[in-house]
Amino acid sequence: MGESRDRLIEMFFSEKAVLFGRFILTSGSESNYYINVKKLSTNPSALKLIAKLMAGEVLKAGISFDRVAGPELGAVPIATALALETGKPLVIVRKKPKEHGTGRQIEGEVNPGDRVLLVEDVTTTGGSVLRAARVLEDAGAEIVAISVVVDREEGSENNLKGYRFIPLLRVSELLARRNPG
Hints:
The protein is an alpha/beta fold. The chain has one domain: Rossmann fold (3-Layer(aba) Sandwich), CATH 3.40.50.2020. The chain contains seven helices and eight strands, in the order αββααβαβββαβαβα. It has helices at residues 2-14, 37-41, 44-60, 76-86, 127-138, 156-159, 171-176, and strands at residues 18-24, 30-35, 67-71, 90-93, 106-107, 115-123, 142-151, 165-170. The strands form two sheets. Strands 5-4-3-6-7-8 form a six-stranded mixed beta sheet, sandwiched between helices. A two-stranded antiparallel ribbon has the order 1-2. Helix 4 (76-86) links the parallel strand 3 (67-71) and strand 4 (90-93). Helix 1 (2-14) runs antiparallel to helix 3 and helix 3 packs across helix 4 (76-86). The longest helix has 17 residues, at 44-60. The mean pLDDT is 94.
């Protein structure tokens, strides 16, 4: 698994998925770097690697689940790839209920008691994934774990206490491998 993680870290830099400058994050805070997992999740080989690594980490942790869920937008390709990797059904959690059609906030089937693995691309404070977890729990699901590609280490692990938290990478290890130049 270590060789695959190394390859993923290398891809962050070769695909220019780590940017430096001035950025405003979803959390509202300002940062001098931006982790753009979407650059990787739109690359088939990187997306496949992310799904393989997530599936491996969840298996290693002994977590059993019935469904894979991801909040829109950044987590949807990751959740889809993980559903394909594991053969588990996919659930998508909208930021808010649709204002037309069915008016649903959850796409895909969630039954009371379903064990759901919730995935996210990047967490800073964990607010977005926590909102998605609550929507799923309100539908009767049990969140067995939250797996993220990168944890920015700015409070999400603490804010998600009560949930099993499985980051593939922490930003400190990613930035420690920053390519010079």
